[in-house]
Amino acid sequence: MKFRDLVLFFALALVATGSSLAFDEIPLWPSTPPGDKPEQYQGEGAYYVPRLEFWRPENQTTDVCVIISCGGCYNGVAYEVEGIAPRDYFLGKGIAVVMLWYRTPRRPGVPKHYAAWQDVQRAVRIVRSKAKEWNIDPNKIGEMGFSAGSHLCLMCATSSTVETYDPVDDIDKLPCNVNFAIPVYPAYALTDGVDNENAGKGVDAELVDDFKFDEKTCPLCLIHGDGDGYSAMASMKVYQKLKGMGVPCEVHIYALANHAFFNCGPDAPIRKYPQRVYEWLQTLGFVEAPESAKVTAP
Q1: pLDDT value at position 298?
Q2: d(CA 152, CA 284)
Q3: Which of 27, 29, 53, 222 has its CA at 20 to 30 Å from residue 292's CA atom?
Q4: How far apart are alpha carbons 220 and 241 in whole angstroms?
């Protein structure tokens, strides 16, 4: 089966299962993704095809677009438990959403996140190329991630000047930096938890050297639980780094909350974190705020 046929297969599968198809599905790559071979997408145990879902809100009130990358240990994509709630929240606020299905499982011989990093860079470029068609501002593109997808979000936010693949078409002439980012309980961010939960509480650990904090590093809104085995100190140390760089950053750490907020009760305060994110977008001017809610910088 050819790569384009696999993309069609996914679309037909959605129709067969009765999905509403309220989104446009777009393959990330015009042919086999970089570093992969065509035969890896065939037969039993085939790799998943990387792709985007573009969701346009019924009432689009802003030219902001948020790309969402769910977690799954870089071995899967937890779309159902992590993606749907924030997607629907932003759509309800009139914000366009792109759901990213990055490549899993991990590729042998390269860092665990490398194929996914290539995918998110390509995703940002595709979104930027669609700005006029989708009625979004190419300078108001954000990335939101969860767990492993939040580690990927930090890669996207802090390290966009690193080219991870050779250009495949004109889309790759566009920049792959995002304009804001929302890492939610990032995993694998500290040196005492490079590939697992943190061995300690993260207090004495350092940020891994995956994150370059280059000149295109964007403003961040970090969300974490204080009881998370992937220590909330990761978010604090990202904040400390950005503070020293003069990059605007906001941090929300919720007492007692563990990893994966969907495990908390439906009325738990932490489940209301998207509202905090929306208010942050208003504060930074990405989304219009009422005059009474505006913040005056010193």
Answers
A1: 65
A2: 23
A3: 222
A4: 11
d(CA 136, CA 249): 23
The CB-side HSE value for 116 (13 A sphere, CA atoms) comes to 31
- Token pair belonging to 217: 């590093």
Nearest to 143 by CA among 188, 97, 105, 180: 180
Q: Assess contact for 164 and 113: CB atoms under 8 A.
A: no
pLDDT score, position 297: 66
Q: Could you report the per-residue pLDDT of 39-57, keeping only the tens digit for each? A: 999 988 788 899 999 999 9
Residue 45: per-residue pLDDT:
78
Task: Give the 3-state secondary structure of residue 261.
Answer: helix
Beta bridge partner(s), residue 141: 65
CATH of 50-293, one of 3.30.750.24, 3.30.2290.10, 3.50.50.60, 3.40.50.1820: 3.40.50.1820
Burial class (CB in 10 A: 0-12, 13-18, 19+), 24: middle
pTM: 0.91
Non-local (6+) Cβ contacts of 13 within 8 A are none
Regions of the chain short of the pLDDT cut 50: 1-21
What pairs with residue 253 in β-bridges? 224
What is the predicted pLDDT for the residue at 84? 94
- d(CA 154, CA 136) in angstroms, rounded, equals 22
Query: Tokens in use for 30?
Result: 């015009």
Our CA angle for 194, 107, 199, nearest 5°, is 15
Distance between CA atoms of 61 and 298, rounded to whole angstroms? Answer: 29
Running DSSP on this structure, what letter comes out for residue 95?
A: -
* Domain assignments of the chain as residue spans, ordered by start: 50-293
pLDDT of residue 292: 79
Cα separation, 16 vs 111, whole angstroms: 36
